[in-house]
Specification:
single chain; 218 residues; alpha+beta; two-stranded antiparallel sheet; 4 strands; flat
C-alpha cells in the first residue's frame, strides 16, 4: 500500500474506514499464517529452497583412509555359467573385426527366472452323522477365497510395510496381485484380508466402504 492509498482511506467516512482497515488487517494475518517467518527452528521442509544456504563442498574424502583394508562385496567362489561376448562387426562403424586381441572378465550376480508354483488343492467333503452336515479339511495354504499363497502374502507385506513399496506399484500387476478386466481392477481377497489394500481405495471401485470378506466353504 502506498502513502496516497492510506490517505484515501483516512478521508473516507469513519465507519467505512474502520471496516476497510479491519479487512486489510485480516488479510495481513492470513498472509502471516500462510508465510511464517523463517527462523532457526523452522523445519527444513517449510523453508523455501531459495532461502536455504548453499551446500558447501564435502570436507572429508569419501572412502576409507589410505592404508586401511578395503571393504567390498566378496567374490563368489562358484561360477554357475560362462557367457562369452564376441563381435563380428564394429558396433560404431559396422566394419569387420579380426580375432580378439584381449579380454576381461566380469562376475555378475543376479536372481534367476522363477516360475510361479500353481497347486490345485482337491478338498474332499465328508458327511458327519453327528453334526448332520458335510465337513472338509481346513486349507491352510491361503486365505479363504484367496488365490495367492501365504508365503507370497508375507513377501508382499514385507515389501509394503518394511521396504515401503506402494500397493499401486506396477510391480503388483506383474506379480498378478491386481488384475485388470473390463477397465476395472480386481484384488485378490488374500491381500485385502492381510490388510494390504482396501477395495474402497481403488479407482473405479463401486464400493463405498471396506470390502466384505468372503467365507470359504468347508
Amino acid at each position: 500500500m502506498t502513502r496516497d492509498e492510506a490517505s484515501a482511506i483516512l478521508d473516507l467516512p469513519r465507519e467505512q474506514a474502520i471496516e476497510l482497515i479491519l479487512c486489510l488487517a485480516e488479510k495481513a494475518e492470513k498472509f502471516d499464517l500462510m508465510h511464517p517467518e523463517i527462523g532457526p527452528t523452522t523445519p527444513s521442509a517449510m523453508t523455501p529452497p531459495y532461502l536455504k544456504a548453499a551446500c558447501g563442498k564435502r570436507k572429508k574424502k569419501p572412502g576409507r583412509p589410505a592404508g586401511h583394508p578395503g571393504c567390498t562385496r566378496p567374490r563368489p567362489s562358484k561360477v554357475d555359467a560362462v557367457k562369452p561376448h564376441e563381435l563380428c562387426h564394429c558396433p560404431e562403424c559396422g566394419g569387420p573385426v579380426k580375432k580378439s586381441i584381449r579380454q576381461h572378465r566380469r562376475l555378475i550376480e543376479d536372481i534367476p527366472n522363477i516360475e510361479p508354483l500353481v497347486t490345485e488343492h482337491v478338498v474332499h467333503g465328508y458327511w458327519c452323522s453327528r453334526c448332520k452336515k458335510i465337513v472338509t479339511a481346513t486349507l491352510t495354504d491361503a486365505f479363504p477365497n484367496g488365490r495367492i499363497g501365504l508365503r507370497l502374502i508375507v513377501f508382499t507385506a514385507w515389501l509394503h510395510y518394511l521396504v515401503g513399496v506402494s500397493v499401486d506399484n506396477p510391480g503388483l500387476d506383474a506379480l498378478g496381485f491386481v488384475q485388470r478386466q473390463d477397465q476395472r481392477r480386481r484384488i485378490d481377497p488374500g491381500l485385502e484380508q492381510a490388510g494390504l489394500v482396501s477395495m474402497a481405495k481403488l479407482p473405479g471401485s463401486r464400493q463405498s466402504g471396506p470390502a466384505k470378506r468372503g467365507t470359504e466353504r468347508r
